[in-house]
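> example.struct
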């Protein structure tokens, strides 16, 4: 399942010329001083970012691909009047960490889980120079007390990757999930970067348990969601895995299962460019058959 990370790494330098990449960022104010930023234009589904603005500090959650750093900085300046003081990376994929170095050069301190730094440090395409890597890391959890908010940052193990973090804004009742939520899409679970379907389900359940009917959820990809939306996508993943397992239990091989198309009922809603119904089926097969 290296497909998404590889595609992003390979096309990023060419995307602007090919008009694949967003050219600017739009924003939605989810709560006073808390914004959800998404790319405008282009065909590439780059990760969304979050922004906390206030009198004390500006905190950015993820920072998109490297070529989008200046456009993201322009949006931050529009909303905050200054660059970010902190960037919290939710995982190591380049559509969420790509402009680390640029944001650091403009004054940001990069914060992330220990495993995220280790993976980026070992990758020459991401370890590009001073500022690219997180300079503050944590093993389990940490809390930012800024702008009247308590932003609780916590690790979710072996889920999307092995270095995932999500953020709960306690007073505002907002959760930023990183790629623990692809709202209304088959999720990319990076089995080659320490992720796993079992851990992804555990992570989603933890987020569901934190939320209530008023919680606003900022996903890594897709529109702002509710607890009901998160539950729906969790139920899809549980059922999809069960459907594939039922065919494996009948001793069907991978190609036969793909032909049987056990996820057909979800295709119209959840199929998308990188994680198609077939890719999702094969990912679940691999997860269920690999110790």
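> example.seq
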């Amino acid at each position: 399942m290296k497909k998404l990370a590889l595609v992003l790494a390979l096309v990023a330098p060419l995307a602007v010329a090919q008009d694949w990449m967003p050219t600017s960022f739009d924003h939605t104010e989810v709560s006073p001083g808390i914004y959800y930023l998404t790319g405008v234009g282009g065909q590439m589904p780059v990760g969304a970012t979050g922004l906390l603005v206030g009198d004390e500090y500006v905190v950015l959650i993820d920072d998109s691909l490297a070529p989008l750093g200046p456009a993201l900085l322009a949006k931050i300046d529009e909303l905050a009047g200054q660059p970010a003081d902190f960037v919290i990376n939710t995982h190591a994929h380049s559509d969420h960490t790509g402009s680390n170095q640029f944001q650091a050069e403009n004054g940001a301190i990069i914060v992330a889980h220990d495993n995220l730094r280790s993976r980026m440090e070992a990758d020459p395409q991401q370890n590009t120079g001073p500022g690219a890597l997180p300079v503050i890391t944590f093993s389990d959890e940490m809390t930012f007390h800024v702008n009247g908010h308590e932003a609780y940052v916590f690790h979710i193990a072996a889920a999307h990757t092995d270095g995932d973090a999500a953020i709960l804004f306690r007073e505002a009742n907002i959760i930023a999930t990183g790629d623990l939520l692809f709202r209304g899409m088959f999720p990319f679970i990076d089995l080659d970067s320490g992720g796993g379907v079992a851990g992804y389900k555990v992570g989603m359940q933890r987020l569901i348990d934190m939320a209530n009917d008023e919680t606003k959820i900022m996903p890594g990809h897709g529109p702002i969601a509710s607890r009901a939306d998160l539950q729906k996508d969790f139920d899809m993943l549980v059922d999809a895995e069960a459907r594939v397992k039922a065919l494996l239990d009948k001793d069907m091989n991978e190609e036969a299962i793909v032909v049987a198309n056990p996820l057909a009922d979800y295709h119209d809603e959840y199929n998308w460019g990188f994680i198609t119904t077939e890719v999702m089926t094969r990912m679940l097969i691999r997860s269920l058959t690999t110790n």
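> remarks
The chain has a mean pLDDT of 93.
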